[in-house]
Amino acid sequence: MIWTQEAGGSVGSSAAIVDGVVYVGSESGALLALDLATGARKWTYATGAEIGESSPTVAAGIVYVGDLKGVIHAVGVDDGRRRWSYAAQAEVRASPVVVAGKVIVGSYDQNLYALDATTGRLAWKVQTEGQVHATAGVDQGVAHVTGCDHILRGVRVDTGKVVLEVSSGAYTGASPALANRHAWYGTFDNQVLSVDLVARKVVWRYEHPERKFPFYSSAALADGLVVLGGRDKLVHALEAASGKERWSFATQARVDSSPAVAGGRVYVGSSDGRLYVLDLKTGAKLSALEAGAPITASPAISGGRLVIGADDGRIYCLGAKSP
């Protein structure tokens, strides 16, 4: 353990680490900037509402995050002061993504928004038929977002034009992992999907033969494997090409935390109150941190350090293998 810090409220938001500073939100409504080396607070920005799963992202000297009143905040990294804010019509649990000068973020008001990263002005919005919980994945100028209306959409970042729609067949809260013109994600119908974005079709579906539980964790891709947690209390590693399970690891509670992979290791939290370190090739447990409170946030890794928050409001910084 390198340091711990109190966030003042439950931490479901995953940290962003940029230039030696950790940015993380909490249900206290605070967006914190912490020194990566020591954990000391550099500043605190009060959003005025709880920050749920929305995780900060940093670009061009501004940190962006959404809150449960539906407000997207843009805050200066140097002084912690508001640059702009934009009010959606319902809570924002998705994490903002900044690309081509736009902030792409979904809301429970059923819209995917694109805001000017500098001014916060609305560039475009796309209405869906369900809440937009998932964070967009961007590839080749297209934002791909899974939806609670069962649809994986591809939206042009520059124009807001919908260029792809593929039915997932189920409610989806997980964000898509993208590589080689494919997307991988889990659904609340107890399945993990691989979608060919060129052919616009589902290539394979994985479902555990016995344990029928939803997937809320977003997948990580590494060495030809799709690694994600399930509400079946397992961490799964599937072959990206075929969907065949390579290994699984059993925790003692649901795994909503999204894994991070670095240095041949998988780092993932569980609602059993532990952060697990697993071998990527075999799934063998290498170590575990006993946090004592559920961990639903996802690990952030930078400079040989890992930062993650727990539901009791404590933020941990540990040593970790860098990529």
How would you concisely characterize the structure shown here?
The protein has no helices and 32 strands. It is mostly beta strands.
Mean pLDDT: 96
Q: What is the name of the CATH topology of the domain at 210-323?
A: Lipocalin
Largest sheet: 4 strands, antiparallel
Number of strands: 32
> Nearest-angstrom radius of gyration?
18 Å
| Poorly predicted parts | none
CATH architecture field of the domain at 210-323? Beta Barrel
Task: Describe what you observe in this structure.
The chain is mainly beta and 323 residues long. The chain has a domain at 210-323: Lipocalin (Beta Barrel), CATH 2.40.128. 0% of the residues lie in helices and 48% in strands. The protein is built from no helices and 32 strands. The protein has strands at residues 3-6, 16-18, 21-25, 30-35, 41-46, 57-59, 62-66, 71-76, 82-87, 97-99, 102-106, 111-116, 122-127, 137-139, 142-145, 151-156, 162-167, 177-179, 182-186, 192-196, 201-206, 220-222, 225-229, 234-239, 245-250, 260-262, 265-269, 274-279, 285-290, 300-302, 305-309, 314-319. The protein has a four-stranded antiparallel sheet, with no helix packed on it. Strands 2-3-4-5 form a four-stranded antiparallel sheet, with no helix packed on it. Strands 6-7-8-9 form a four-stranded antiparallel sheet, with no helix packed on it. Strand 3 (21-25) and strand 4 form a beta hairpin. The chain is globular and about 50 Å long.
